[in-house]
Amino acid sequence: MDSLSINSNRTGSNTNSTTLPNNNVNTPNLNLNNGFANANWTNLLNILQQLLQQFSNQYKPPASLTLNDNQNRNLRSLFNLQDSSPFTVSVLDKNGNGKLNAGDVAVMYGGITGGEVSRRVLTAADIKAINNTNNTQNANLTTLNTNEAKWKAATANGNYDYTVQFGGFTAPEYRRPITVSVNNGQVSGMTYADTGETVPADRQASVPSMSDLFQELRDAYKNNAAQINVTYDPTYGYPSSLYIDRSAMIADEEVSYSVSNVRVR
């Protein structure tokens, strides 16, 4: 082992000599040839790219089936959705035959992101329900349309009177019966049936017309209201009484009306 001498000469001080060991460490020359490793990585990446390409060529996501209005309405009913619910439902054609079959997948989208919320593999019973054209909702809408047409035919000249009373959860003042007079299709007067006094203008705006009552029923059917009870007049077709509970989960949002003293002029 060689030694290294260090002399320190300073004015006014003693001269000291220190000998330190000189360790000569020979660092090995790590000159690795990475050619073989690089070649292996390149081959591996090429294989992975080929596999991904084959997978993308073979896999095609199932297309969405095109359904008619009745099928879409029944499909939404499977998910307990109303027409006004901010969700959409589509059916993925799993076997690619372009037809609605058991095994196809119904997917509901919506929420904050608009993405997938839930999915359901359709059974044979689901397919039957979706394709059903004689369901209760359609029957109720047909009955409504028939009675509305009867009312329009009976009042073609636009001259009639009726008394309407609201029966929902509201102040007693808004539950008073009101007589409405219509001439040439336009409301010509509104009076309280119990006193004969004129209904204030701000109150008149909330009094439903016959068209409003029919539309209220139609919306309730299309939106799958929790409960709908209606009685139509056998002669004129107007709804003499109706009760609508839009949601069983919400309290005190039910509405009801009764119509009486109808006089067609």
From TrEMBL:
It comes from the Bacteria. Residues 1-26 are annotated as: Disordered. This is DUF6174 domain-containing protein. It comes from Candidatus Thiocaldithrix dubininis. The lineage of its organism: Bacteria, Pseudomonadati, Pseudomonadota, Gammaproteobacteria, Thiotrichales.
